Amino acid sequence: MFYISIAELTALCGMLYMRQDMATFGDIGVAAAFNILSALIFLIAFAFLRLQPFNDRVYFPKWYLKGLRSSPSHSGTFVTKIVNLDWRAYIRFLNWVPEALKMPEPELIDHAGLDSAAYLRIYLLGYNCTLYFLDLPLLKIFVPVTLLSWAILVPVNWTNNTLAVLAQGDEKITFSNIDKLSISNVPHGSPRFCTHVVMAYVFTFWTCYTLMKEYEIIAAMRLHFLASEKRRPVQFTVLVRNVPPDPDESVSECVEHFFLVNHPDHYLTHQVVINANKLAKLVEEKKKKENWLDYYQLKYSRNQAKRPMTKTGFLGLCGDKVDGIDYQTAEIERLTQEIEAERERVKTDPNCIMPTAFVSFKTRWGAAVCAQTQQSRNPTLWLTEWAAEPRDVFWANLAIPYVSITIRKLIAAVAFFFLTFFFMIPVSAVQSLANIESIEKRKFIKSFIQGVLPGLALKIFLIVLLPTILMMMSKFEGFLSISALERRAALRYYLFNFVNVFLLHLFRLYVIVQCRIPETLGVAIPMKATFFITYVMVDGWAGIAGEILRLKPLIFFHLKNFFLVKTEKDREEAMDPGSIGFNTGEPQIQLYFLLGLVYAVVTPIFLPFILVFFALAYMVFRHATRYNPPPLSLSLHSMHLSCVDDFPIQIQLTLYSLSLVQIINVYNQEYESAAAFWPDVHGLIIYALIFSQIVLMGLMGRKVAMTKKAQASIKPGLSMRHVLCLGWKLVILLSVALCVFAFLRIQQYSHSTAALPQKFRSLTYDFNSNPKNVDRVKFSIYVHSEPGFVFDESTTRSTVFFDRQLRNSIKVAWGEASMIQAERILFEEALQDPANQRFVLLSDSCVPLYNFSYIYNYLMGSPRSFVDSFLDKKDVRYNPQMSPAISKQKWRKGSKWVTLIRRHAEEVDDETVFPIFEKFCKRRPPVDASKGRKNLKLQKQHNCIPDEHYFQTLLSMKDLENELERRTVTYTVWNQSTTNMDNGGWHPFTFSYADAGSEQIKKIKDINHVYYETEYRTEW
């Protein structure tokens, strides 16, 4: 019997029931109207409830937890404490919609984290695809796919009568006008199938291209999110597991000795993990007692005539009646003593020491090497990996032996297999009850059993039981971070949905009625689209709108507030902000991606329903992240190519963030993984794309049955089946090629330029560093300033320099080796970020001549370093004592303001040239005419200025001069002086505003060569 039970789907979500025959446009319209009305009711109810003062903590809990929001005023009548009586607020009650849609992404990242921003991008999965009237980027994949499907495929499908002809020949086959819009209505062997094949290629190419672009964006966001973070211990820390026991040493001593021997230059310290579960329970109990003490003290302050009393028994319901304040104070003192005793015990008890430790290194590079290399010949010992942040660590799994992890994973995989595939049995068994003769006579009971019970069982299991079971499986497997637990649970949740929601409903007919499967496969699959259309409307539209209402937290908060809340701390705990729920939310999104990609060619009418879901979900979750931010603190810097002021260019160094309304106003993330889940999202969409191609191949294999005449005109080796197989291979090849191309583009666009200014205190032209329309992911900045000096609001006018000074800066004197030592420190710090590919030493006295894009493309477009380097033919600078380590033939001179590619910057970390410079390249003391003969002695000394020779000589000794542009990118004038003191040429000409006219700027821009007299050489 070939019809689709729409009641089966609507009962699945428990919200709508439809009759058990083929859905028509009217049926879908009624279902859509019902679900749209439900969604609107939820949204309007939310808009009304969020205005009421007594609901403020339900809809804005995150701001209370951060201490940035206080309860509405309690003054006035009792009614005003509960209900908002300001009529103007109800006129603007829908203002949250445009506010949620207009919030910029950079503000979201700082407030809610990169995980939240990346999660929202799953709904968008787009870039430069914009609904301009809302300023909302929307659904890069499905908007073009929907437009093309409706413009091309819908007319091709509609203008046939295949289903009508089949229905006349077999009364068991039923269809509706919706099915006439699908591929089922195209006759067998029709050349119109070429249109579907071509569109499948177009959709595949567009999806792969969109994924590639989105991966580039997320990769750059993650890279710069990590690079722009302030230094935290977790960035220098590695988790070490399975430390082997040593009879002569403790675990701590063993770890210390191991890393001192194997990582002597980078090891800093370590912390052994201790099993302190009992201590944690005591601390938690003490917090509860302190909360009770606060409650009794508050109660006593309101009525000092009577001391609060309590009972010492269970929950204060039985036992002796004593003074509440005195009792809780005594209990706190007792617990404090027990906590101290337990703390000392766990430090010395060998049974509490786990074979696990957090090891910290002096540099990120040292930590990276340790985390990504094998530390021992035995691959099961001294296991290292990057340490998760403290909030993300799942402490209970740290002591699991490595050998048992493989066994645990195997057990979990087998358990998940049985959980997934054996769940079909009870659902199918319940549905088969409808075939019992006594039940078949009662149509209502039959419809209820066949349509409601299986779906109801599945829905209860999906919402209530399955997430908990899958998280337990992930914990059993031994994952060490909450983020890893949720990613594994999300993958399995998706697989369960794929089998029991998608495949089970798609192929259930062929399990029950195993006849004429080949002949009806091409018709039945697209006709199942009505089932999933209703699924999207009920579970997607109404379900996602219900998310913003927060009905369960709303009810529980008021119940707790009325019966259980005693103190402000209790009120905070009652808010229950929750989190995004990646382990359940992301699989739902992936299921909709799968449905959209599978039915894009098969049943185009399905796509608008997917679009509505993604748009509504984006608005809801973005509201959950909305927030009115304070002024941004931006880390920006203006690059210097010239000492002439033109139009300031602002180079954005870091990715900024402030916030978005569930993610910003409500959800309080437990951890921050910096979008580590995105490869999983990307991979599942690729798998969905591949599955959609397999489905289309199956359809084409049956429906493109060519006539004998057509087969005779084509060689046997070029049949339609062979053409389809070749097309499938080309799709795979195209997907792989696009993924490789995406990787190469990621490598290209993740490159950054590190600006390395040196300054003691004030910054002369910091007002040039105001951010305007600059790229946010291509530059970073490191400032070497006087030790202890901090750039903040009191020391600089530009937020670009805030907290960008190095913590390990040194005292610098002009003309001394400390100058190049400071430069080496700058390069060492900047090299820790792998995104930095160009390293530019800057002066604070220079201002830009060209705009940002020009400078960035100029530097990144050249494979060479820019180093002002030439032969120094005078004997006054070179000290013969430098020989033979530094020969005179390799001695070079030039400007210190160099621009190095990464490979050349790594050469700065040398231990050969620098010690010689430090010892023999010294500035001659000033000549004093009154000294007489002593003055002559001074004049014979070598006058070596280290920073004018170091880079040039170092690169010359490394035989790298052929890889250099031996010129600077800074325009300077040495044959003119601003003051009499500079007449000797010790300082270049300083331009004033009067000198920086448009004509002067044009003359400088017209310069196209540099001539070096000592070498008779022209550069550029």
UniProtKB/TrEMBL annotation:
Residues 235-397 form the CSC1/OSCA1-like cytosolic domain. Its main location: membrane. InterPro entries: Csc1-like (IPR045122), CSC1/OSCA1-like_7TM (IPR003864), CSC1/OSCA1-like_cyt (IPR027815), CSC1/OSCA1-like_N (IPR032880), Glyco_trans_14 (IPR003406). GO terms for molecular function: calcium-activated cation channel activity; glycosyltransferase activity. The chain crosses the membrane at residues 28-49, 131-153, 193-212, 410-428, 448-472, 493-512, 532-551, 591-621, 684-702, 723-744. Coiled coil: none annotated. One of its GO terms (cellular component) is plasma membrane. It is found in: Membrane. Residues 28-214 form the CSC1/OSCA1-like N-terminal transmembrane domain. The keyword Nucleus does not apply. The keyword Coiled coil does not apply. Keywords: Calcium, Glycoprotein, Glycosyltransferase, Ion channel, Ion transport, Membrane, Transferase, Transmembrane, Transmembrane helix, Transport. Residues 408-627 form the CSC1/OSCA1-like 7TM region domain. It is a multi-pass membrane protein; Single-pass type II membrane protein. Signal peptide: none annotated. PANTHER family: PROBABLE MEMBRANE PROTEIN DUF221-RELATED, RE44586P. Belongs to the CSC1 (TC 1.A.17) family. This is Calcium permeable stress-gated cation channel 1.
